[in-house]
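Ops channel
N.P.: pipeline sanity check, posting one input/output pair.
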């Protein structure tokens, strides 16, 4: 018996609709991302960040506090933990980022570390000014391969409500 691939069910990857977010749920984003020296140097130079702690291995080796290692750029760390969440949470359903707050980097990240991300939904409400959309509040947490928190950030997003059949897509 053969199967006609033209009639096979198809699923397009997408994020969660507003209604699918559940307050208090922690979404784990896998796989993790091993950070390389090249990632750090490229991101740091692309963003014009001339901080020697990210770029200068010889100078960093003389500095106390981080074992003589260069630090991964904290903005790269933040971008990566948010990026790791996209496929699971907001791919195709996000309208806009409304803002970030309470950003912290409680421990350093170094080249060779692997970062894992998780996101907790901390609140949601339908938008009062934008019908068909809702505000979802998220807390992103990044941990290294040892489970140590290396980044934390609160984020407010605008997300689409699930399309109703017959509304705009008949």
């Amino acid at each position: 018996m053969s199967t006609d691939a033209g009639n096979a069910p198809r699923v397009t990857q997408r994020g969660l609709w507003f209604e699918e977010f559940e307050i208090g749920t922690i979404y784990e984003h896998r796989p993790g991302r091993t950070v390389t020296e090249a990632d750090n140097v490229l991101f740091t130079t692309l963003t014009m960040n001339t901080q020697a702690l990210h770029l200068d291995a010889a100078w960093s080796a003389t500095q106390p506090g981080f074992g003589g290692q260069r630090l991964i750029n904290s903005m790269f760390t933040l971008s990566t933990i948010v990026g790791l969440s996209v496929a699971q949470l907001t791919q195709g359903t996000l309208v806009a980022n409304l803002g970030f707050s309470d950003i912290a980097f409680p421990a350093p990240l170094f080249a060779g570390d692997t970062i894992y991300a998780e996101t907790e939904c901390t609140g949601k409400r339908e938008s009062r000014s934008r019908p068909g959309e809702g505000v979802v509040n998220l807390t992103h947490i990044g941990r290294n391969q040892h489970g140590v928190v290396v980044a934390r950030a609160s984020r407010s997003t605008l997300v689409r409500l699930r399309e109703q059949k017959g509304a705009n897509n008949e």
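N.P.: looks fine end to end. The longest helix spans residues 74-89.
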